[in-house]
Amino acid sequence: MIAICATDLSAASEATIESETCLECLGRIGVEEIHLVTVIPSNVHAGMPGIDFAARREQALDRYRSVIEDADFDVEAHVVRGTPHRRINGIAEAVGASLTVIGSRGKSPLENRVIGSTARNLARTTIVPLLVNRIERGADEPAVVREHLFRRMLFATDFSENAERAFEAFSYLRHATQEATLVHVETPKDPALPEGADPEARLAELATKLEDWEIETRTAVHQGDPADEILAAEVEYEPTTILVGSRGHSRLRRLLLGSVSEDIVARADGNVMLVPPDRTA
Question: What domains, with CATH codes, occur in the chain?
């Protein structure tokens, strides 16, 4: 399995790359090759006064490469220019990646409304599963918020086709997962099941599959706003990562947050893994 690790050479990126437990978890799920991707924004130029971008970049990438190689991964580095999320997606497609990993310090009051960060742009455009690795905010030398990426998973499902696709990720996550909580949120605005269907029974079916893999599993049905209830479940169960499917978006949502998955990326305390729709379907 090939993984993309997107880095902007910030402290948040460094925390993701240099976390021994994060790398260990990637190895457990079958990642063998990691591609470091650094995107230079089009408005940044090497000749800008007072900043030696090239030297700083090479030093950082050499350090990251050494850390990853010491963890027994094959490593390639890509330095490209352009719009970060577009170039990251392009490289993911070109190398046949199965996962993109990006560090993010999480929410701020402004970020709760307007899409701006690379992590959130990737959340609505990614072509492969995206792991947003949450990093401490406000620390000079930040660390990852929750280690052992896949040890305790919170899987949120509306029983849609894309939610089923997200659940299939357990076929490889199971090698690093010990506990899982399966959550469905009932809402009168957008009924996810046919009339008379039993969400608890559907969750129990999914739980049986995970228990066959010796994953300790619980289920819960909530009522209310999906994003609010999923985040409440995160507080209650303290998973290391929330796993959710992303459904794709209208042109309006390219400007303002609207989907449950994007809301979770913006507001979750811990890591979030998004699985996009199958583009070939």
Answer: 2-134 (3.40.50.620), 152-275 (3.40.50.620)
